[in-house]
Description:
Distance between the termini: 9 Å
Number of domains: 1
CATH topology: TIM Barrel
CATH superfamily: Metal-dependent hydrolases
Shape: globular
Number of strands: 19
Number of helices: 9
Order of helices and strands: EHEEHHEEHEEHEHEHEEHEEEEEEEEH
Strand content: 25-35%
Amino acid sequence: MMRPILCVLAVALASCHTQPRWYKGNLHTHTLWSDGNHFPEMVVDWYASRDYDFLALTEHNIVADHEKWVGNDLVIRRGGRTALADYRKRFGNDWVDHREVKGKLQVRLKKLDEMRTLFDDDFLLIAAEEITAGFKGKPIHINASNIAGRIPPQKGASVREVMRKTLAAVNEHKKQHGLRVLTHLNHPNFGWGITAEDLAVVTEEHFYEVYNGHPSVHHKGDAKRPSTERMWDIANTTRVRDLNAHVLYGLATDDSHNYHNASGSTPGRGWVMVRATELSADALIEAIERGDFYASSGVVLDEVSVDANSMTIEIAAQGNATYVTEFIGTRRGSDEIGQVLARVPGLRARYHFSDKDLFVRATVTSTLPPDNPVFKDQKQKRQAWVQPVVPADLRGKKQ
């Protein structure tokens, strides 16, 4: 089975659209439409006023396409003491719809189509949902981006069945509406809901969060369970070696909820950089599906290129930072999963594939800390995660 690979392959470049560029976006965000603590336009404005190109509002089992009012007392309880005043100051009193119900002030939440009128065409707001389900207390959250409306959460007899039924429901939605929809599994270690083995076996899912900016999702794992990055290598080893299946790609997201202070899940921690020909949902998702993107918590890459013989990464310098790129993979016949195949310092790193490599990916680490670190132990550094490739597929060979 041939697996999709980066469009930057020299042999495939002629078939790709011309003049692609990098677009920055976050595909996991919450507002007062679900369990976030700020008005949706304020959240969108946070990203649009910085260097983001696209954003998906991923509320729990909700799409912002119907009428909804929230009490200002709820907003205050969630930490937004000045949220309404800030909202009015930013967008004007005429924009804010309010009413009193039984003596309590309520504010209408704006729909996606209304919000889009506030922002220029060079910022894309994508309709999305965090399809929030579970099995025996284990959270199973899958984001669906570029949807036409709400997709109900699914039930099943196991974690894997819930995952599969959710993905099947999204596929039916895609067919019904003629849309290109991106699904990705969220924070697998949240509530220890998803194992690396689940990620490996549910091959219908091609994307998951290797990095999530929420401080409560057990990004690092624990003494008994692997980190989310380690899970990536375990899952891909099984997929390539045993299942002849599509590799799993890794995203970074904010999963932002809190916009009023520095605690909790705050924005600006994780994002994806997508190389696409235009700023549209179709073009972005098409690029993501072929693996032409990287995930980041602060490292910026100028170039990622792959050919039949090697992977090359060029890093954008930031201040006085130094960088190390680790090329990571599993080799055929080896019991060591996700070993460091090469460690290359500097702004340019190249790895030459071995005939024994099942798959190869890369993690780039800076000496600088993130602007908004998740972990407060002063050890976290800015990173970027480059998507895995299967060298045998690049050479047109079967495993």
